[in-house]
Request: fold
Amino acid sequence: LASEKPELMKKFLLKNVRMRIGKDVDMKHFTPTYNPWEQRLCAVPDGDLFKIVKQGKASIETDEIDHFTKNGILLKSGKELEADIIVSATGLNIQILCGLKATIDGVPISTNDHMLYKGVLLSDVPN
Reply:
């Protein structure tokens, strides 16, 4: 459905977020500029993020970091966010088979040389 009717899927997902997040939270922080599956989506399977934002225990800022300051970070919009700790989480590093280095009789197996079935079983490899 997402590939055939991306605008409809986006509308559905955003309506679901709005229902969970409440009326007082700015949806711009949850509205991507792209349609679903044109890029990766951030999933919140159990909705815990929405609950704590709705309760005011956390907030969301969608911006770019201009630079670090003595007390936190300055965003490109000019807003400064005070922070005791800054955790860098800017990318996703996917490893095929979780980085598994498999061997058969001491000979390394290159995953590029095999088909992967259901995300876990390699062709021509004893499972």
